[in-house]
Amino acid sequence: MHEHSMADALVATVEHLRLEAGAQKVCKAVLRVSELSPLTPDALQMMIDHAAEEMGVHSFPIEVVCDGLLGHCPSCGVVVLTDELACSQCGVQGIMPAADEAILVVSCDFE
């Protein structure tokens, strides 16, 4: 199921960041979700909790920021789009907005 693979990828990314930081625990992850996404913060938290349990790692609370469009840039990956539907990082034009498949990890707080 698409939602499960997305949650698995989010947990794996946050775990990778935790290990890179040499931290014991993830206190919070701030995620940017496209304003077109049908995902609610509660649904996303449940998906992350389930994925963490399945992966045998500790879950973490999330804060969801939903204040713009996200898309997939062929050069940069998942990015915030400008009003002209261009990549905010490299300026590539014609990027289409994404819905639930585009989530960015903005930051993580560790302990």
Report the CATH topology name. Answer: hypothetical protein PF0899 fold
Mean model confidence by pLDDT: 91
Number of helices: 2
Strand fraction band? 25-35%
Order of helices and strands: HEHEEEEE
Kindly provide the radius of gyration, computed on alpha-carbon positions and rounded to a whole number of angstroms.
14 Å
* Low-pLDDT ranges: none
* The level-1 CATH class: Alpha Beta
List keywords for this structure.
alpha+beta, hypothetical protein PF0899 fold, three-stranded mixed sheet, 111 residues, 2 helices, globular, 32% helix
Task: Write structural notes for this entry.
By secondary structure, the protein is of the alpha+beta class. It has a single domain, classed as 2-Layer Sandwich (hypothetical protein PF0899 fold), CATH 3.30.2320. It has helices at residues 2-21, 41-55, and strands at 26-33, 62-65, 70-73, 77-80, 97-98, 103-110. Strand 1 (26-33), helix 2 and strand 2 (62-65) form a beta-alpha-beta unit. The longest helix has 20 residues, at 2-21.
In short:
By secondary structure, the protein is of the alpha+beta class.
Helix/strand layout:
Elements (H helix, E strand, L loop, with lengths): L1 H20 L4 E8 L7 H15 L6 E4 L4 E4 L3 E4 L16 E2 L4 E8 L1
Parallel strand pairs: 1-2
Antiparallel strand pairs: 1-6, 3-4, 3-5
Helix pairs in contact: 1-2
